[in-house]
Amino acid sequence: MTSVDLLVPELSELDATGAHTLLLRDLLVAKSAGPVRIVTQVPTTTTENVTLVDGWTDPADLVILQHGIGSFVAEAVIHRRVPCVLNYHNITPAEFLEPWDPGLLPGLRWGRSQLDQLVPLTTRAIADSGYNACELRAAGFDDVRVSPVMWRLGIDEALAGDREPVVLFVGRVVSNKRHEDLVASMAMVHDTHPDARLVLVGSPSIDTYGRALTSLIERLGLANVVEFTGPVDNAELAAWYRRASVFLCLSEHEGF
Q1: How far apart are the C-alpha atoms of 178 and 194, rounded to whole Å?
Q2: Final residue of a domain: which of 95, 115, 146?
Q3: Can you spell out the DSSP letters for 64-104?
Q4: Would you state the torsion angle of the CA atoms of residues 246, 250, 255, 256, taken in this order, to the nearest 10 degrees?
Q5: Which residue has the higher pLDDT, 151 or 225?
């Protein structure tokens, strides 16, 4: 049997990469692949069989690295020259976030630098979209496969209800996703559809950007029209997809 280590910077089922890691863990366990362990750099109580990267001294037969930002788990792979399968979730270009939070830039640039160093250690690279596959090939990875993340969301029927005049967007509240354009478009929609609402599902990430959005919403008189849900679990997310009439994405860079 083949032992497997899943390396992820931070494990949270409310985060897309964390949720994918847990999904992959469950799939490997169901296929009886062998012992499956998650290695992360942030303590968590989310699941069993989790090892902090500081104590990761015995890499498994197969190491799968989830990469989307500079991390100590990637650094451990590079420093120890551990062969790995790279699962790439895209690194947001720094210029999109620099005006709002320059403190995020070192992690993004570190991640790009680590990507270059992972080329000779990667036995296979997996991208969740053709867009990300192109980035990997441009970085020098040869064996790149596209494998979209697909799973069936269990729905919370109590939350779902019937279709509503809801415009929905799902994604972290960060500037490259252009929430301000969603809000501005909602001002026009609301003129002709006064019962319509804009629901923004996702974790807040940059305080200055969040405050600017709040100010814009108040200035446009949309305080009762725009709703930020914050992070939600899969059942609530599925319920929002069922209730919404329209999904609207105006992202400048979605990384997918």
Answers
A1: 23
A2: 146
A3: EEEESS--HHHHHHHHHT--EEEEE-----GGGTTTT-GGG
A4: 30
A5: 225
85 forms beta bridges with 64, 124
Domain membership of residue 188 as a residue range:
157-247
CA dihedral 156, 157, 161, 167 (to 10 degrees): 30
- Residue 115 burial class via C-beta count within 10 angstroms: exposed 0-12, middle 13-18, buried 19 and up: buried
**Is 235 contained in some domain?**
yes
Measure CA 49 to chain center: 22
At 26, the pLDDT band (50, 70, 90 cuts) reads confident
Alpha-carbon gap, residue 44 to 42, rounded angstroms: 6
Q: Give the three-class secondary structure for 127.
A: strand
The structure tokens listed for 107 are 């992690």
Is residue 182 within 8 A of residue 198, CB to CB? The reply is yes
Q: Alpha-carbon torsion 135, 137, 141, 143, what sign?
A: positive
Residues 131-147 have pLDDT tens digits of 999 999 999 999 899 98
Domains held by the chain: number: 2
Residues 85 and 61 both lie in one domain: yes
- Band the pLDDT of 209: cuts 50, 70, 90: very high
The Cα–Cα gap between 253 and 92 comes to 7
Query: 1-31: buried (b, 16+ CB within 10 Å) or exposed (e) per residue?
Result: eeebbbbbbbbbeebbbbbbbbebbeebeee
CATH of the domain at 170: 3.40.50.2000
Closest CA to 156 of 234, 244, 229, 227: 234
pTM of the model: 0.84
